[in-house]
Specification:
Layout (H helix, E strand, L loop, with lengths): L4 H6 L1 E4 L5 H16 L9 E5 H7 L6 H15 L3 H5 L4 E6 L2 E6 L2 H14 L12 E3 L6 E4 L24 E2 L2 E2 L4 H13 L3 E3 L7 H4 L6 H13 L3 E6 L3 H4 L11 H17 L5 E4 L16 H12 L5 E5 L19 H6 L10 E6 L22 E7 L15 H9 L19 H6 L7 E5 L15 H12 L5 H12 L5 H11 L2 H8 L37 E2 L19 H6 L9 H4 L2 E2 L10 H23 L8 H33 L11
Helix pairs in contact: 2-6, 3-4, 7-9, 11-12, 16-17, 17-18, 18-22, 19-22, 22-23
Bound molecules: alpha-D-glucopyranuronic acid.
The site of alpha-D-glucopyranuronic acid has 9 residues, from loops.
């Protein structure tokens, strides 16, 4: 609430009539700001208006501020395409002799405008006076997927891959009675830019499957809270729900009874939650049911749900995370990385307009370093969303500091058809991944991420992991934001009284923390090497002889997965030029992805000039040492941040230091024992 003070002191006039729940929220926020700033002088006021109301209020005798608002409203109405561009979610801002005016066409846009003002403290000096600054989200869909289960005794606990306590909204098999924290959470998400949440785990077990049917009244309580924050509610559904929640003996997507079952189910859902967003589906993946059982395609499956949702305006997010998790490790011809592309590219063009294919960032599974999923460049006739993992399953489980915004920025900025300005610049498709998933106004894709929040007092277990949640939301709105600036924004919001010392410390710990984490864990893009099951801590061969398809193939001579067309699995061929050739060749493959694409001797010389084995030794020693420096740096803010935050972070940094040393020693010893190549500095365990 501290952040509201500057706006409160300016005095905010709200021109918006009607009882829309989002407008009610804006009204409450404005009143709260006035309350926070009570007793201070009003200066350089702010007007917040819906276009229609601004027009209606601003007659010839209206105050100058109203006239300005009305002018913007007229500009909105008249500037070709502007109202369309702003749509439901955008807003315009102008500054006129210190007075600020924000106009939106729709309530959600007005709420976004309000949060923009809060974030900037009403200081929009970045925007030229008199100019109409147009703010529209880059992505129309900005979603968080919660992997929450209904109870602590659910398979995988209360939250699958959750590192922040139990679910904020489910407990003991139902929606909690007290949803106060959910209200705070919805407000927080709206502030970051999120506009959609999926409430339950993609692995939908029997109990959770009933949320869609007998549980929908409980879901409606949550939808009411999220609606008021401008956030749509989604559920993950079980493809076999007609069997598990209904009385059918099939879930064949082409069966008439199955179709009728879904139609009835969604009719009931929309009777209870008229603005229900839709569903998220994990099918034929890691043991979940799906259309393959009936010899049908994933387009058949997605369209079955899509057509039942279509009359109500709902959308199906269909996950592309489909692969064989019962692989024979002896068979080097099968490549898990290939799976999504192999399954889905033949279906391009077959998905209905209200189906979005949700593709994980990398072709394997949220590793600390992966190339971009080639599927994102291979479905021109399909709506595509990219899925990220904010919860730090493979990046330290919120025990380790690992700020992921730089990783996400790299992916969003990546140009699947090559860098701009290359030899064939004119021919090149210059779109970035952010452009690809933006889709079109009529058929947008979006960004989706697995959430990292639970009922922990600090929301995210590790207090500094909040920065990932904040940065994710902001990047969904604007993928060109600088991760370092986002840290400043987050630190200022989170530690309002703390000042520059905290910002400095936060930067020192977080700015490079992704690279630090990478440097002491699985090297050069090889991935995994984690303990099977819970995925925390090192176990180099933990997955090597298992069915999961996540191998490194280390032997006495070398390590890495040959995914070339020439001699390997052919995965490089799934990329368009130039990447298919860049990754194919040892000459051009970037060091950080070397072992993802190539099997090389330990003595292979990297572009950096080091050998593979020496690089491993050096980076692991340096990475572990960096965590010790992080721990020391944190001591600078003792007494500056609240004690409970200080202590929690300090305890987690102790664990990070311990764990990083364990990673260093296991990885380095492994490479030494396999290769027999000593570290010139003798830093490995014999
Ligand atoms: C990972 C994770 C699972 C999850 C799966 C998914 O494999 O370990 O817990 O279910 O991703 O994204 O579906």
């Amino acid at each position: 609430d501290e952040a509201l003070r500057p706006l409160g002191t300016r005095g905010v006039r709200l021109l918006a009539t009607g009882d829309d729940p989002v407008l009610t929220t804006v009204r409450a926020e404005v009143a709260r700001a006035a309350q926070v700033a009570r007793g201070t002088t009003t200066s350089a006021p702010v007007t917040l208006a819906l276009a229609a109301d601004a027009l209606a209020a601003a007659g010839p005798g209206a105050a100058p501020r109203l006239r300005t608002a009305a002018e913007h409203a007229i500009a909105l109405a008249e500037r070709p395409g502007l109202a369309g561009t702003l749509g439901a979610q955008g807003f315009v801002v102008t500054r006129d002799e210190g007075a600020l005016v924000v106009v939106a066409a729709q309530p959600r846009g007005l709420l976004a405008g309000w949060h923009h003002l809060v974030r900037t403290g009403g200081d929009t000096s970045g925007e030229a006076a008199g100019d109409l600054a147009v703010h529209v989200p880059a992505q129309a869909v900005r979603m968080l997927d919660h992997w929450d289960n209904l109870a602590a005794d659910s398979p995988m606990g209360p939250v699958e891959r959750g590192y922040a306590g139990a679910s904020l909204w489910f407990a003991d098999g139902r929606v909690r009675d007290d949803l106060t924290r959910v209200e705070h959470y919805a407000r927080l998400l709206a502030h970051t830019g999120i506009n959609a949440v999926c409430l339950n785990n993609v692995n939908v077990h029997a109990r959770e499957s009933a949320l869609l049917t007998t549980g929908i009244d409980q879901v409606a309580r949550l939808a009411t809270i999220f609606r008021a924050a401008g956030i749509s509610t989604y559920l993950a559904v079980d493809f076999a729900a007609p069997i598990t929640s209904g009385a059918l003996d099939t879930s064949d997507p082409l069966d008439d009874d199955v179709r009728a079952w879904w139609e009835r189910a969604f009719a009931d859902v929309y009777a209870t939650i008229p603005d229900f967003g839709g569903v998220v589906v994990k099918a034929d993946s890691e043991g979940r049911p799906g259309p393959f059982a009936y010899g049908r395609t994933h387009a058949d499956g997605a369209n079955l749900l899509g057509r039942a949702l279509a009359p109500h305006g709902g959308t199906v997010f269909w996950r592309a995370f489909v692969y064989d998790h019962r692989q024979d490790w002896r068979d080097r011809g099968t490549d898990r990385a290939r799976a999504a592309y192999d399954h889905f590219t033949p279906l391009d063009g077959q998905f209905d307009d209200n189906a979005v294919l949700q593709v994980k960032l990398g072709p394997v599974d949220f590793q600390v370093r992966e190339p971009l999923s080639p599927l994102l460049a291979a479905m021109p006739h399909t709506r595509l969303a990219m899925e990220l993992q904010v919860t730090q399953e493979y990046t330290g489980q919120q025990q380790h500091v690992c700020y992921l915004a730089p990783l996400w920025r790299e992916a969003l900025d990546f140009r699947p058809w090559g860098p701009v300005g290359g030899a064939d610049a004119a021919e090149t498709d210059a779109r970035t991944v952010a452009d690809v998933v933006r889709g079109t106004d009529a058929l947008p894709g979006g960004l989706v991420a697995v959430a990292n929040v639970g009922d922990d007092p600090f929301w995210t277990g590790h207090p500094l992991a909040q920065a990932n949640l904040y940065a994710y939301g902001r990047l969904t709105w604007d993928p060109t934001l600088d991760p370092s600036d986002l840290l400043d924004e987050w630190a200022a919001r989170t530690f309002p009284q703390a000042g520059p010392a905290v910002a400095r410390t936060v930067h020192a710990l977080l700015d490079d923390s992704w690279h630090v984490y990478e440097s002491y864990t699985a090297p050069l893009g090889i991935g995994f090497m984690v303990r099977p099951g819970h995925h925390y801590g090192p176990d180099v061969d933990g997955y090597e002889y298992t069915p999961w398809g996540t191998y490194h193939f280390a032997d006495r001579d070398g390590i890495g997965v040959d995914r070339t067309r020439a001699t390997g699995t052919g995965f490089t061929g799934q990329y368009p030029a130039p990447w298919r050739d860049v990754y194919e060749s040892l000459e051009t493959c970037p060091d950080e992805l070397l072992l993802f694409f190539h099997h090389v001797p330990y003595t292979h010389v990297l572009h950096s000039g080091s050998t593979v084995v020496q690089h491993v030794y050096d980076t692991h020693v340096e990475g572990a040492a960096a965590t010790q420096r992080m721990r020391d740096t944190w001591r600078d803010v003792r007494g500056v941040v609240p004690d409970e935050v200080f202590d929690r972070v300090a305890a987690r940094l102790d664990e990070q230091v311990r764990s990083a040393a364990e990673w260093r020693d296991q990885i380095n010893t492994y490479f030494w024992r396999k290769s027999g190549i000593p570290d010139p500095q003798n830093r490995v365990i014999p």
